[in-house]
Write a structure and sequence with these properties.
This protein has 770 residues and is of the alpha/beta class. It folds into five domains: 206 residues, 3-Layer(aba) Sandwich (Rossmann fold); 95 residues, Glutamyl-tRNA Synthetase, domain 3 (Alpha-Beta Complex); 202 residues, Ribosomal Protein L25, Chain P (Beta Barrel); 122 residues, no CATH class; 58 residues, Arc Repressor Mutant, subunit A. The chain has 24 helices and 27 strands. Helix 21 crosses helix 24.
Length: 770
Amino acid sequence: MSDAPKPQNFLAAIVEADLRAGRNGGRVVTRFPPEPNGFLHIGHAKSILLNFGLAKAFGGRTNLRFDDTNPVTEETEYVEAIQQDVRWLGGDWGDRVHYASDYFERMYECAERLVREGKAYVDSQTQEQIREGRGSFERPGVDSPYRGRSVEENLALLRRMRAGELPDGAAVLRAKIDMSHPNVLMRDPLLYRIRHAKHHRTGDRWCIYPMYDFAHPLEDAFEGVTHSICTLEFESNRELYDWVLDSLGPWDPRPHQYEFARLALGYTVLSKRKLLQLVQERRVSGWDDPRMPTIAGMRRRGVTPEALRAFAELIGVAKNNSVVDIGKLEFAIRGDLEGRAPRALAVLAPLPVTIVNWPAGEVEELDVPWWPGEPARGSRKVPFSGELLVEREDFALEPPKGWRRLAPGREVRLAGAYVVRCEEAVRGPGGEVVALRCTYDPASLGEAAGRKVSGTIHWVDARRSAPAEVRIYDRLFAVEQPDAAPSFLDALNPDSLRIEQGARVEPALRDAPPGARYQFLRQGYFFADPVDSRPGAPVWNRTITLKDTWASRAAPQPAVEARKPRERKEPAGATAAPRKTRAGFRADARAADPALRARYASYQARGLSAEEADLLTGDAATADYFDAAVAAKAAPASAARWLLNDLAGLAGDHPLGELPLPGAAFGRFVALVDAGRLTPSAAKTLLADLVAHGGEPEARLGALGLAKVDDRAAIEAAVEKALAAQPREVERYRAGEKKLLGVLLGAVMRQTGGAADAALVRKMLTEKLG
């Protein structure tokens, strides 16, 4: 049996029980059986990870099998794309790639056997007549007038079907079971149909093709599959699955079918037919459009296989269908990218800034760390001069209450640089702001200078930054359940793609290779498009925002209105009555509860910001959970940060008190993080596991192998492995591209699961690179 971690779900329990009982000769064989009629989507990703994961965990194997029984819709292009997707997700099928078409002759022999044994017949009715004769749940079916054909007549007709003597629709082969069976699928189901079409592998050799319900169990039996795992819509088909195997056995091992809930994801459609429609009508750029829920689209957007695995573990394997909150997928993506994406400077909608007291013509090369707060993970030089660019939305002529960015007379810190003060807004002919004139404080460089300001904003040098095309992707659909609309196309989000042609990025990103990942400071996580990027001109796809920008939006409009652009907020003084915000509801709760008011004041006295105290005291349950964490020795500031930024996203719509992670255990988790027992990325992984499965944080830390690695030998082995896997980057680094140190450091961190001491990794890496 494998040493891989054992999954915790009902299917894993079935496999484990079979092994204990000695069934199937101790073998575990699963399969992933896609039909090559389109690209795989995230629902398939869940199935891939489940089938390959179960087999690996229990020392078995998984076959990759293409159910290519419909020549009209299947193409070699899809076969190649599916193999790429499965391999990218970590699926290893070895030499076990199979096709239904490999078994066409054996399947046909099985069909003749059924006919000879009186268990199948050729029906010459039309498709409509067959459908009508099958009846319904309330009405039993009626026998076909051709059900009594002799074995000889049926064999002769079946052979004529195979020989191509009959046109499409002239006849079908049906199982002879029971036309009054309570399961409508068992009322003489179709086994073979005529289809004169060229097959992508067998060409014109066949003109009859097996139906899925006949082919599926036979393929499993031919391949020795022990656990045939399907989604719940095939639950009713299991009876037919068993009939086929029992009628044509014996088999060793004898496959068994098990069902689990398929993935249904909010703000998404996963119907291949609908995804194909989006492609054919050019509503997206192709199957790999980064807005598509296809694996290819998500890969091009910058999502990693590790993020999809984390998502699959987060949602688990269920027996009942339900719609999964897309926020859980986005949380898994953010958690994965937080630890692997260096921070960079980029301005999407530039507003020019002149530093009027900057020495004329001088350029300062600032040393800015790729990971703020973790200088050991590397840095780069960023030019700073008297001509800069800031984000247009970071300036307001008349700032609202709580504004923490630039405004006339206001000071902010430029990230990694100086504190500046806005002295003047330069207006254009129409009164619009076209530029800013600011002063800087020469003594304020770096956070260590101790200068307190209201906020920090990002920037780039106006002359030395690089132009870039930046694609701002958002959810493809504007409503949670697009299929509920009269037409799912009505629910398309008109703002799902915005291209910022005038964006500028810091110089270090000019030569970023396709596939590079960065967090654009304060903007989101971005990925250098692997298709459209060119040397010296990467195209940046936004993978995801830094925070969920949808959760706080107003309730969705009816699906039929989804095409309309979202309305802008009314300016101050508008006559319409303002909608009460969530902050308003929290304020009302405190006004009605003196205990909550007291907690609000006490939290701020303990060093929390007014915003944190507000969010923690919107209801008694949240405050109780927080207090339990602090009572378990968690630092209040750390507990607040982890609760509001991470735990709330994992909990979704579930109250904190219903999580398998009690407040005290959450507090012990925070204490582990503050004690430096694990890295930030490993901490996010541990927290997701605790929310999904519960348990004691200390014990789960050990079980998952997430404790920070300080072992020099283990780190050295990870360094060697990472360098061996990236010879080109090593060669370029040694040739003078020192900025690649961050890329190589990230590769080592991934080898250790993000658990290594980053400072030690950097030291050993630089030593190895010479």
